[in-house]
Amino acid sequence: MVAALMAPLVGEAWAVQVELRLRRFQQVIAYRSLNLAARAISVHPSTLATQIGQLETAIGKPLLTRGRPRRPMTLTQQGHALLAMLEHPRVAQLLDEYAKSMPG
Q: For a 10 Å CB count at each end of the chain, is N or C smaller?
């Protein structure tokens, strides 16, 4: 499910949204908090939560277990599997190449 490979099949706009949501998922995991990740990437926490929710809807499985206040989010089994795929060197390279090919 790499956006660069999906664009010819599903359309550029949809592929761009998937790529963005995959990147945002990685950022949330890196910061272990929606609020911290949102602050770091300069988006509103509700926007980030919506993007993660849309990714989970597209996949059909929850990726994160939302923590209580002051407790970090944790990955579900599906979240671990997705993160492992995204960290694969070839997938990371494809995402980077796709992002560089986008205007702006």
A: C
Domain count, the chain: 1
Half-sphere exposure of 89 (CA within 13 A, CB side): 0
The dihedrals phi and psi of 67, each to the nearest 5 degrees, come to -80, 160
Buried b (16+ CB within 10 A) or exposed e, 37-55: bbeeeebeeeebbebbeeb
Residue with tokens 């809807």: 57
Q: Check which CATH number belongs to the domain holding 93 and give it.
A: 1.10.10.10
Q: What residue numbers bound the domain in which 19 lies?
A: 3-101
The pTM score is: 0.74
